[in-house]
Amino acid sequence: MYGKAIAPEYQGALTTLSVNSSLTDVLAAGTRQLREAERAGEHGEAARSGLAVAEAHRRLGQIGEADRAWKASYRAAKTAGDKGTMAWALWSGGTLARQRGSFALARRLLGLAADMGEQGDDVVVRGYSLAGLAETGRIQGDYEGVARLHEQLLAEARRRGEARHTVWALEGIAQIHRQRGSYDSAYALFEEAAGIAARADDRRGHAWALRGLADIVSARDGDVERALALLSEAEATCRAMRLSSALAYNHKMRGNVLYRGGRCAEARDMYELALAEFREMSEPRGEALARLGLVKSLARLGRDRAETVAELSALAAELDRIGLRHAREMVARAQDELGVQAQEDRGVPAEVAR
């Protein structure tokens, strides 16, 4: 039913690149082709190669370079009158905005990308852009608002036999089920995604599916060792492909698994590693989630109660600022779990407590 996974964001002279190409290789090839196209005055080719450059920088966590690259790709595509590539550049910019925690900008750019893709008769970029909108809503905790869109995109991907997009949609739906506490259905969806990704040779999608399976195995079954083994398998892929963001989220999940297993000192070390990785790539959502895990681990290891209260209150404010509804609820659960009250409940102004 599904063919080998492809990377439609690698276009023009770069279509020979694989979905599994190392990001450093993608960046080198894209930069080389971009320079050649610019010297030749080929705006369309410059836009297409610039898109690959932007995506390589983004996935490597090089935020400033990615921002400049997608904008340059858009300008070149506009000069060439290529609406399809303009849409892809907007998709890249919207995905970067979501990664940086700028959710309103992400929705605006991804919405423009979907419209532009429709105008340019590029069904693939339209689908990717709608998928980006769905993922943005899911990350913010708007499960009711985006569940139907996830299902719609899954049906379209299955109908076209697009393995990579099918895997993405399955993983998104699985995350919604997991957050609602439906562990069995979430596990089945992650398992299906992992199987399709493996058969289609989509190593990135497979790594994310393994991370999801590890989460369920840990949360539902309490099987720490199996969960860690799944994460180790996924980590090998992340390192081979230089997937910086995926690796940081893998490390954050490893911290979750260790914490649930009562191995708080090991969890602390893993959260500290993930926190440093997220900060290096300026990814506020991952940073906040790693901080939350670290606060809980330190509390279990005997950290001063007042410091825990202050840190959780600061995290709640940060998550509200970012707009992460579900993550804000996680802070509230952590306050209950650790037996600490929010500062406002105790009548202590946050600025004093800090």
TrEMBL record:
The organism's place on the tree of life at top rank: Bacteria
Pfam families: TPR_12 (PF13424)
Signal peptide from the UniProt entry: none
Gene3D superfamilies in the cross-refs: Tetratricopeptide repeat domain (1.25.40.10)
Protein name as annotated: MalT-like TPR region domain-containing protein
